[in-house]
Every structure is written in structure tokens, then in C-alpha cells.
Structure to design on (232 residues):
């Protein structure tokens, strides 16, 4: 019997598309909510049963499209372990926030931590590839439908939207970087270069919700610099 999207179970290809679309939506939401780009450069769209904000900046769209294309390739091969959105102060150069999305896949692979990066759409935006020793050993969550996964994603997007209620104000103009942690065996484009993990000293961490498909589990959290450190 044919089913609608809400009833359809998820294939590997479908899971890759869901995770990639979530990352694209989450990045856009972070950039809007944290004021990295001007609010007038975003448009409203309906997704996951919510109204979400998506950039209309052509340079940024091209940049994110390039990153998501590479992300889908790595996800298909089971190589992605983590995406990190790093928010940094343009004046101070300090890392102020790290939005981390851990990806667990049922492949049992292990890697060694190495960091590389590729030029983004401009000097402010850099894509990073960091291979890590943490492997995804999560078992497959069989039988889930697209509708069930979208409901879980909706909860995460709502939390990102509500983050302005608990995150400290960003008191300087900021830029963002993307770090992608992969297995050591992942094929990395030659244009990507070394990068550090951009950790935050004296930080606080808030865990967000997670979602699972038949092939991937994504856990979310945000780490931010304590206000007292900013005000010194």
C-alpha cells in the first residue's frame, strides 16, 4: 500500500537528506537568532510544522550549498561524526559559542583527531574538517517514519529559537565558522586546510534535544563563554 511522506519509512538516502536539511535549517536559525547576519536578509519558510528563517544572501547560500554537498557525501559513506557551528567575536577573535551536533552511525568505525579547513564564502566564514577518535556505535532505530523524525527535529529548532532566553548577549560583531568532524578514512577536498577545534575556556554547556532516523542519531548542545569572562 502506498504511503504518504508522513508514513514512509526511511532509507539511507532519505536519512542523509533529512540530516543535511536539518543542519542547513539549524545553521540558518543560529545565524538569525544570534544576529550574525542582519534579520532583513532572511525569509520565512514553513518546515517541520514551524515557521523557520532561511538566508537570502546569495554568497552565504552558495557557501552553505557547497558545505551541504560535501556533508551529504560524507554522511552517505558513514564518515560524519560531528558538525560544530563556531561563533567568534570579530574584534576579540575569541570563540564565544560552539553549537555541536554529534552524529552517531551504525558503522563501528574509529578515527584519529586531525583538523583541516576550507575557505568559505569570504574571510569570515571557514569550513573545517576535524576527524575524531569518537565513533558512532548507536544501533539503528528501525521503523521510524519521516513524520516522527520531523516532530523530533521540530523540538530542536524550537530550542534554538528559544536560546536567546538563556544565552549571553553577543556584545561585539561576530562571524561564524563550520567544523565537520569525520572518520580518518574520509576523502577530504584538497582545498581544505588545518584548523584547531576552537574550544571555549571557562564555558557553560546546555544540552538540547536529539533526533534519530533508521540510520543516524543526532545529539545537540550549545557551549558558551561565561558572562563574567566577557565583562572583565
Amino acid at each position: 500500500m502506498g504511503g504518504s511522506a508522513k508514513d514512509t519509512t526511511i532509507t539511507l538516502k532519505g536519512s542523509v537528506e533529512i540530516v543535511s536539511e536539518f543542519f542547513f535549517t539549524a545553521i540558518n536559525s543560529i545565524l538569525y537568532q544570534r544576529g550574525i547576519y542582519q534579520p532583513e536578509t532572511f525569509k520565512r519558510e514553513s518546515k517541520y510544522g514551524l515557521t523557520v528563517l532561511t538566508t537570502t544572501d546569495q554568497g552565504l547560500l552558495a557557501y552553505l550549498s557547497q558545505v551541504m554537498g560535501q556533508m551529504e557525501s560524507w554522511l552517505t559513506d558513514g564518515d560524519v561524526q560531528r558538525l560544530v557551528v563556531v561563533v567568534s567575536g570579530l574584534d576579540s577573535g575569541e570563540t564565544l559559542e560552539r553549537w555541536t551536533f554529534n552524529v552517531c552511525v551504525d558503522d563501528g568505525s574509529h578515527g584519529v583527531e586531525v583538523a583541516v579547513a576550507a575557505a568559505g564564502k569570504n574571510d569570515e566564514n571557514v569550513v573545517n574538517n576535524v576527524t575524531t577518535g569518537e565513533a558512532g556505535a548507536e544501533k539503528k532505530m528501525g521503523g521510524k517514519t519521516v513524520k516522527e523524525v520531523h516532530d523530533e527535529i521540530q523540538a530542536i529548532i524550537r530550542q534554538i529559537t528559544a536560546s536567546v532566553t538563556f544565552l549571553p548577549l553577543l556584545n561585539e560583531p561576530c562571524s561564524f565558522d563550520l567544523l565537520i568532524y569525520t572518520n580518518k578514512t574520509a576523502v577530504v577536498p584538497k582545498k581544505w586546510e588545518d584548523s584547531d577545534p576552537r574550544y571555549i575556556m571557562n564555558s557553560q554547556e546546555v544540552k538540547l534535544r536529539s533526533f534519530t532516523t533508521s540510520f543516524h542519531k543526532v545529539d545537540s548542545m550549545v557551549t558558551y563563554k561565561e558572562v563574567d569572562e566577557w565583562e572583565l
